[in-house]
Amino acid sequence: MNIGFPNGKKSLDVRIPSVIKYSNNLNFICSFLSGLFDTDGNIFFRKSYSTKNLINNSRNHYPIISITTISKGFADDLNNVFRIFGFKFSFHIEESRKFNQQRAYIIKLSGLDQLDKWMRLVGMKNDVKLTRYLVWKKCGFCPTHTTLHQREEILKGNLDVHSL
Predict the structure, then answer these.
(1) Do 87 and 128 meet the contact criterion of CB atoms below 8 Å apart?
(2) HSE of 62, CA atoms in CB hemisphere, 13 A
(3) What is the rounded distance in angstroms from the CA atom of residue 53 to the CA atom of residue 61?
(4) What is the CATH classification number for the domain harbouring 109?
(5) pTM above 0.90, yes or no
(6) What is the Cα–Cα distance from 82 to 105, expressed in whole angstroms?
(7) Are 108 and 66 a contacting pair, CB within 8 Å?
(8) What would the pLDDT profile of 1-35 be if each residue is shown by its tens digit?
(9) In the chain, what percentage of residues exceed pLDDT 70?
(10) Residue 78's domain spans which residues?
(11) What are φ and ψ of residue 43, in 5° steps?
(12) For residue 100, is pLDDT > 90?
């Protein structure tokens, strides 16, 4: 099925195809978001310095989902889709630091409520990203700089997460 993505270079001017953007089928839109996240998204966990989280403030436990694009139009389309689903998100522009690098548009969903909503509506299938989530779910935090293999071993119980 042709959904409207152009052939060739499209990074700067790609948009969410109309057949998705204006669909009344929320499952169809969620499937698109899931595929987008699995290829161009990221999930990570950072420390929180809130006084509410004094127990966990030394571990990377605060969830953040992000999607980055260099297309302003695509970022605007994503903002609209996220509003439709009622996600609370931040949007910022990161200016390029290198001569040959483009400006990046970054959309972030932060916190437990947004992660829970994302997993309920959209989910993720990419093992690299999914294992980060599963380790966090099992242990309450996810150590940084772990490999997919290490996270799989943590989930199997063969590696102590506190040793990392």
Answers:
(1) no
(2) 16
(3) 10
(4) 3.10.28.10
(5) no
(6) 15
(7) yes
(8) 555 555 555 567 788 989 998 899 999 999 999 99
(9) 87
(10) 18-122
(11) -125, 130
(12) no
